[in-house]
Write a structure and sequence with these properties.
Blueprint: E1 9-11, H1 19-28, E2 34-36, E3 48-50, H2 52-55, H3 58-64, E4 69-71, H4 77-90, H5 99-109
Parallel strand pairs: 1-3, 1-4, 2-3
């Protein structure tokens, strides 16, 4: 039987900085309820998670779960920008009704479309 890790752990690196690998590492370390890019509602029951769904709410998570650990993942700027450009072009905002993607992009990147110079 796996035992639950002592504290919750959250990846607070931006998308495309190894968040999928970090979530797998959390599972390897024994975290059972790991969420990757979660909606807000999933955070209350999660043991660990990473990606934009965590980045937006890291202050809430720190307050809600005292003693949580936070891991900052990073990536070289040019590689990250290339990867983000691919994501923005592959998953464009198609409607003003796409509230969650619009909110996430505006809160984190302050843009809906990709602009490399920003």
């Amino acid at each position: 039987m796996q035992r639950r890790p002592i504290s919750r752990c959250w990846g607070i690196g931006l998308a495309r900085t190894g968040t999928t690998s970090l979530c797998q590492a959390f599972r390897t370390l024994g975290y059972s309820n790991v969420v990757h890019n979660p909606p807000f509602e999933a955070l209350a029951s999660a043991d660990a998670g990473a990606d934009n769904g965590v980045v937006i709410f890291f202050k809430y998570l720190d307050y809600k779960f005292p003693g949580s650990k936070f891991v900052l993942t990073v990536r070289d700027l040019d590689g990250w920008l290339d990867s983000m450009e691919y994501i923005y072009r592959s998953f464009p905002i198609l409607s003003l009704d796409d509230d969650v993607p619009i909110m996430r992009r505006m809160l984190i990147y302050e843009a809906i479309t990709f602009e490399r110079t920003n």
